[in-house]
């Protein structure tokens, strides 16, 4: 049977049974899906050296004959070593593997193979645990080799072989970007870019492929923004009166004083909602700058006129946190709807009861997660949609929530605590007006931040104990959950055990991580909030939405593994009251660039300044050995791709200016429509 883009992955070599289900879990069911499953990094084994010529430190492929091979136990007896001598006309090199005795059978003396890896000097001039390829097809050796994210039973070899087979039909991929744009930027065709992003012939081919695919992501992103902008410009909106009296009454009930920036932002939003077309505004504020109360003030204006408000949060923890906040701020009942939590006006209720209360109009304000989208909850006269941590939702998801009702579309207020360099804000969020909270609430003290080397950690943990003794609480954040991590980074479980039996013995410790069930997460946060725990050891699940005013210390283990923006978000979990708070950065391995990043955290608490520093330090990214960390919407594009973003914005503006309805570019129109239909609701 001839392979085509729609063929099931079951028709590919090595894919069947368990592997089929594993790929399905990644939303990969056909050849087309697999072609778009791009590598997250590459190993460059394209340098082919003779066995006698390879130098220590080089990443090479050696094609030679196995002249001898034998296994023996290591000195400790815990590991079985397999040692071989591989030779060719240039000489010989030692090759070594650990606990792979089967190689004695599969690589007998006299056999020929390719061996790819880094030449090590610890055991003499030696290849340690190289990749072996018997047929010399140069799929796994002898080239720039793709490295993919794996899941379940799927091995790297099977995945590479399957994707290699898919390339036989890659030319069926239709190129949707206008030919004039590709020629102007000297980008390869889409089919060639996909071929080269998987199996590039050289570094230039890979760079060209990545540049093209990044452009496609950003170009489509800008076109979708433009489509939303055009559509909403022609829609009617709920005309919400900017009533100063209602706002003054709201402010008078608050137990704190608003900053000038908060008052300005509230009025900007209020005036926007008083226009005949839907508002599209981004409220950007540093961690702890008070975005929630700004959103609540605007929600109060909407509710006073008998209209509805939907608040969309990316996590259940944040949704629960904001439910409590809005219940305090607003003079009306509020509902909570997530996958595991359903509440009305502070009381537990069934999911059906919550949905019915919303549909009947008894509840005007609902706080929720993706469940609001999944259940297609109908909110009568929904005049305002608030999207929190909006960078975690694609433009498609926001678009899905903004469907007009009786010719009127809701106003959109997006919020983010992720500092975005001002040079990027317009480019990234091209469909939004911008309000910025650049002041902290009165009485807040800057969080004292210190990079703590190993020699000073005993003193640091002593200070942590003193804080707990004084009635305060502590976060300890780790990068990983499982102790099986090959990078050796401490896990939550390991760290909690070490602290409970060592530095923090006798204190009440709890854990929080992404693999816990929703009710377990909520229980851990509640116990911490209620003071039943002194220390919460967690992953970055606490990065957003965990508001514990009594917490005064944030300890970040493996701090060099986090980006500046994420470190700043984590630091923002403390210093949320008038008490002095502390953030301790505990690196495990420091390079020059990581130390520079952590020293920047010591110097400033300004998130916008840190975002600019992060952009300069990050650079364009290096896909050889470093995983990509881009926006959730993108596979390859990163915040550092400023030049590509600008190109995408310029080309999209030019295209829309010349052909606003895409009448002369039907494939562009089809691609935009397809993206809006591909809303993945988790």
Explain how this protein is built:
- By secondary structure, the chain is an alpha/beta fold.
- 36% of the residues lie in helices and 19% in strands.
- It contains 23 helices and 26 strands.
- The protein has a nine-stranded mixed β-sheet, sandwiched between helices. A six-stranded parallel β-sheet has the order 21-26-25-22-24-23, with helices on both faces. Strands 3-4-5-7-6 form a five-stranded mixed β-barrel.
- A hairpin with a 2-residue loop joins strand 14 and strand 15.
- Helix 8 crosses helix 10 and helix 9 packs parallel to helix 10.
- The longest helix has 31 residues.
- It is globular, with a radius of gyration of 28 Å.
- The two termini are 35 Å apart.
- The relative contact order is 0.09.
């Amino acid at each position: 049977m001839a392979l085509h883009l729609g063929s099931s992955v079951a028709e590919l070599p090595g894919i069947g049974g368990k592997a089929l289900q594993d790929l399905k879990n990644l939303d990969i069911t056909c050849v087309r899906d697999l072609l778009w499953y791009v590598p997250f990094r590459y190993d460059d084994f394209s340098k082919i050296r003779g066995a006698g010529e390879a130098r220590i430190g080089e990443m090479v492929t050696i094609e030679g004959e196995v002249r001898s091979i034998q296994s023996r136990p290591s000195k400790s007896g815990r590991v079985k070593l397999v040692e071989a001598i591989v030779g060719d006309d240039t000489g010989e090199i030692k090759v070594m593997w650990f606990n792979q005795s089967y190689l004695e059978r599969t690589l007998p003396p006299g056999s020929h193979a390719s061996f790819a890896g880094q030449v090590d000097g610890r055991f003499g001039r030696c290849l340690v645990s190289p990749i072996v390829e018997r047929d010399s097809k140069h799929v796994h050796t002898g080239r720039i080799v793709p490295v993919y994210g794996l899941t379940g039973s799927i091995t790297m070899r099977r995945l590479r072989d399957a994707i290699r087979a898919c390339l036989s039909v890659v030319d069926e991929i239709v190129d949707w970007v206008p030919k004039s744009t590709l020629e102007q930027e000297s980008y390869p065709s889409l089919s060639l870019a996909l071929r080269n992003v998987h199996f590039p012939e050289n570094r230039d081919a890979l760079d060209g492929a990545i540049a093209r695919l990044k452009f496609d992501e950003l170009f489509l992103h800008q076109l979708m923004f433009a489509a939303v902008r055009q559509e909403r410009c022609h829609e009617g909106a709920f005309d919400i009166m900017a009533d100063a009296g209602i706002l003054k009454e709201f402010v008078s009930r608050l137990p704190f004083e608003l900053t000038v920036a908060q008052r300005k932002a509230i009025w900007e939003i209020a005036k926007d909602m008083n226009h005949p077309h839907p508002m599209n505004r981004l409220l950007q504020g540093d961690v702890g700058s008070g975005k929630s109360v700004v959103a609540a003030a605007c929600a109060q204006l909407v509710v006073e006129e008998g209209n509805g408000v939907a608040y969309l949060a990316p996590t259940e923890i944040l949704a629960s946190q904001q439910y409590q906040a809005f219940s305090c701020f607003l003079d009306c009942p509020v509902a909570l709807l997530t996958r595991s939590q359903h509440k009305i006006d502070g009381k537990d209720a069934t999911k059906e009861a919550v949905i019915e209360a919303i549909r009947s109009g008894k509840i005007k304000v609902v706080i929720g997660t993706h469940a609001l989208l999944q259940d297609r909850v109908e909110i009568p006269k929904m005049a305002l949609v608030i999207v929190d941590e909006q960078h975690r939702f694609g433009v498609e998801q926001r678009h899905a929530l903004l469907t007009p009702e009786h010719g009127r579309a809701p106003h959109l207020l997006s919020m983010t605590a992720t500092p975005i360099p001002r040079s990027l804000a317009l480019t990234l969020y091209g469909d939004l007006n911008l309000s910025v909270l650049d002041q902290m609430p009165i009485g807040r003290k800057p969080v004292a931040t210190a990079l703590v080397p190993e020699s000073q950690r005993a003193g640091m943990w002593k200070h942590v104990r003193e804080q707990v003794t004084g009635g305060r609480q502590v976060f300890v954040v780790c990068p990983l959950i499982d102790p099986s991590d090959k990078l050796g980074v401490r896990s939550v479980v390991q760290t909690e055990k070490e602290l409970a039996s060592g530095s923090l013995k006798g204190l009440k410790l709890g854990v929080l991580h992404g693999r816990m069930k929703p009710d377990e997460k909520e229980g851990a946060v509640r116990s911490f909030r209620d003071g039943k725990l002194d220390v919460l050891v967690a992953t970055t699940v606490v990065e957003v939405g965990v508001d514990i005013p009594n917490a005064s210390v944030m300890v970040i283990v493996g701090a060099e593994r986090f980006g500046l923006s994420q470190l700043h978000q984590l630091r923002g979990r403390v210093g949320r009251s008038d008490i002095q708070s502390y953030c301790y950065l505990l690196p495990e391995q420091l390079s020059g660039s990581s130390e520079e990043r952590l020293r920047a955290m010591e110097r400033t608490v300004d998130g916008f300044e840190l975002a600019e520093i992060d952009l300069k330090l990050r650079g364009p990214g290096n896909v050889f050995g470093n995983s990509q960390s881009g926006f959730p919407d993108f596979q390859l594009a990163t915040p550092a791709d400023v030049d590509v973003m600008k190109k995408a914005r310029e080309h999209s503006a030019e295209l829309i200016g010349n052909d606003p309805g895409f009448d002369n570019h039907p494939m562009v129109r089809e691609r935009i429509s397809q993206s809006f239909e591909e809303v993945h609701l988790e």
